[in-house]
Amino acid sequence: MSLASALGLGGKKVRYAMVGLGDITQSAMLPGVKHTGNSEVTALVSGDAEKLAKVGDAYGVEGRYRYDQFDALIASGTIDAIYIGTPNWRHAEFAVPALNAGIHVLCEKPLEVSAEQARAILAAEKAGKAKLMTAYRLHFEPATLDAIRRIRAGELGDVLAFTSCFGQMLDPANHRAHHGIEAGPLFDMGAYPINAIRYLFGAEPVEVVSAVGTRHPEAGFGDLDDTITVTLRLPGDRFAQFVVSYYLNGVETLTIAGTKGSITLNPAYTFGKSLEQIRTIGQDTEHQVFKATDQFGGEMKYFSDCILEDRTPEPDGEEGLADILVIEAVVKALKSGGPVAVEPLARSRRIDPDAQEQRLSPVSPPETVNADSPTR
Q1: For residue 179, how far is the Cα from the chain centroid?
Q2: ∠ CA 346-351-352 to the nearest 5 degrees?
Q3: Which residues on neighbouring strands pair with residue 238, listed in sequence order?
Q4: Is the pLDDT of residue 79 over 90?
C-alpha cells in the first residue's frame, strides 16, 4: 500500500497549514501553492487576528488558528503537513509537536537557532515517523543545479576558493533589527552562503578561521552587528569567505574558483527573477541567464511528492542541522575573536542536480513575489 493510500489521500492533494503569516508566507509560499498541482492550504496559524482574517479571506481558507490553538489544529484531522514561516527561534515550537503527531513538516531555514533545538526537531521526526524538509529553495533552482553539475564534472578543476557578498539595506524599524543576533544577518542571511559552500564544495567546513562583526552607528541598529565577515576552512586547505549585512545596498553574488576556472553567480540567492552565471574556463568567458522558476511552489511540489510517494526529501533535516553547526561556531568565534572548530557531522547525502531539475516548477514565479526581499 502506498503512503498516499495509507493516509487516505489517494489522488487528493496534500493538505497544508501555513504556520506564520509573515512576508515570505504571504508574498511567496501562498502564491506558489497554485503551481504545485499536488498541494492545498486548509489552515492558517498566526498570532495576529487581522492577518488571519485578511489572508484567510484572500485565499478562501476556513481553518484559522491562533498560535495557542496549535494543538487543536494537530488533532483536527484537517491537515497532513505544515509549512513553518515563523521567526527562526519559533521553529521547534511548532515542528516538534507536529512531527510527534505524524504531521509532515516543511520548515524554513535556518532549521532553528541552535543545534540542540535542531536535534530536537530531528528526534521528533524519528519518533513520529513523519517527513521533515528544510526549505532550501535554491536546491530547486536551475542556475544553482547547473553550477553543482559543472563542478562535479571537473570543469573548474580542483575547487579551492569561495567568496560571497550578500547584503540588503534593512529598515531599523523592521522586527529583525530588534531580536539580537538570532534575527540578525548571520542567522537570517548566513545560511545562504554557508549552504552554498557546502553544496558547491561537496564537503563540510571544519573550522571558522575568523569572524568579525561590525556595528556602524549610522545604521541605526543599536547593539546589533549589522555586518559580519567570516572565513571558513574546509578539508584539503580549501577556504571560503562571506560577508552578510543589513547595511549594504542590495548585493548577492558568489564566486567558486578552481585550478581550471571559476563560476560567478550574480544574482546568487534571490527569488522572483532569473539567476545568472559568468563562467570562466581558462581564458574563455561565457555569460548565461537561467529561466526564473517558482522556487517556493517547486519546493512544496517536491515535498508533497515525497509525502505521496514515501520518499525521503532532500534537503532533509540533517541538512539544516549542518548549517546550524557552522553558524554556532561563527557565533563562538565572534565572541572569542579567535578560530573555532566546527562540530563534525558526517554528511554523506548531497544534492542530485539531475533528479532535482526534473522536478523544477515549469512556471514563472508568482506575480506577487517581492524580488527585492531575497532572504528566506
Answers
A1: 20
A2: 130
A3: 234
A4: yes
What value does the CA radius of gyration of the chain take, rounded to a whole number of Å? 20
* Average pLDDT score over residue span 63-79: 98
The pLDDT, as a whole number, for residue 376 is 59
- pLDDT, tens digit, 9 for 90 and up, residues 180-215: 888 899 999 999 999 999 999 999 999 999 999 999
Using CA atoms, how far apart are residues 40 and 42, in angstroms rounded to an integer? 6
Closest by CA position to 164, among listed 48, 259, 267, 53: 267
How many angstroms separate the Cα of 297 from the Cα of each of 106, 108, 127, 363, 372? 12, 14, 28, 9, 18
Q: At what angle do helices 317-336 and 191-201 cross, to 10 degrees?
A: 120
Q: What angle do CA 125, 88, 362 make, to 5 degrees?
A: 75
Cβ atoms 8, 28 nearer than 8 A: no
The C-alpha atoms of residue 272 and residue 365 are separated, in whole angstroms, by: 5
For residue 330, give Cα distances in angstroms to 64, 159, 272: 39, 23, 30
Nearest CA-CA partner of 319 in 138, 86, 145:
138
For the entire predicted model, the pTM comes to 0.92
Cell of residue 307, nine digits:
509525502
- 216-259 pLDDT tens trace: 999 988 889 999 999 999 999 999 999 999 999 999 999 999 99
